[in-house]
Amino acid sequence: MYRSLKNILVACLKRNRELPVARFLEKFQVILEKSNETLHLMSDMNDKLGGEYVFDLHYIEESAEKLDDLLLKIISEIKIITHHHTLDLFPAFERIQHTIQEELAGKHVLTSEAMVLPLHEVTDWQRDLVGGKMERLAGLSNHLGLRIPDGFVITTQAFFQHLQHSDLENVIEEAKYRLDKNDEDGWRRLARTMRKQITDTPLPRKLVTRIHQEYDALMERTNRNNLRVAMRSSAWGRVARQVLRGSTTHN
C-alpha cells in the first residue's frame, strides 16, 4: 500500500504546478496518517473475527462508520493533490458504502455471481449459501476426487433476493406481530399466501440471467446441447421455519 502511495506522490509532484510543495506534502502526510489508521482498524476487525473476542453489532456499525470517515478523508485529500483527476473514486466509495449499510441494516446484498454457483466452486464454508447436501456433494468431487454429476446451485441468497423482490419479507414481518404462535389456522393461511406470492412473482431478472449462464456453461462442460437436468430443491418446511423465525435478516 505504501509503495502505491509513494508512486502517487512521485507522479503528482512531477505534474503538480499549482499546489505549493509544502501544502502538497502536508496533504500527502494526512493521506499517510489516515491510511495507517485505516490499516490498524481493519487489523483490529480482523482479529475480532478470529473467534477469540466477543463483539456485537454496535462494534461492527461503529467500526464501519470510522472506516467511512477515514476513507472519505483519504479520497478528499487525493482529490486535492491530483487536481480532481480521481473523480471516479467518490462514486466507487458511495457504492461500497451503500452495500455495507444495506448489509448492516439486515438487507440481502449480493452480486449476481453469488446467486448461482457451479458445483466445482462450492467450498467448505458455504453451507449457509448452498445447503448441507450440496456442500457434501461438492466435497466428494473437490476433495476426494470422486466422479459426481456436474451441476450448479441456486443459492439461498437467490431465495432471499426473491423474497425481497416479491415483498414477501414484509408479509412475514407483519405476520410475526399479528399472529398468535398457537393460531394454527392463521399460520396455514400465511403459508398459502407465501406459496402463492412466491410462485406468482417473476424471478429477478439478474437471477434468470445467471441461471441461463450457468446452464450454458454446463452444456459446454459436458459437450451436450439441450441438456436435461434433474432438480433437487431444499425442504420447504425447514426453509419456512427459518424465514418465520426471522432468519431473513441474518443469512
TrEMBL record:
Residues 128-236 form the Pyruvate phosphate dikinase AMP/ATP-binding domain. It comes from the Bacteria. Its cofactor is Mg(2+). The keyword Nucleotide-binding applies. GO terms for molecular function: ATP binding; metal ion binding; pyruvate, water dikinase activity. InterPro entries: PEP_synth (IPR006319), PPDK_AMP/ATP-bd (IPR002192). The keyword Ribosomal protein does not apply. Belongs to the PEP-utilizing enzyme family. This is Phosphoenolpyruvate synthase.
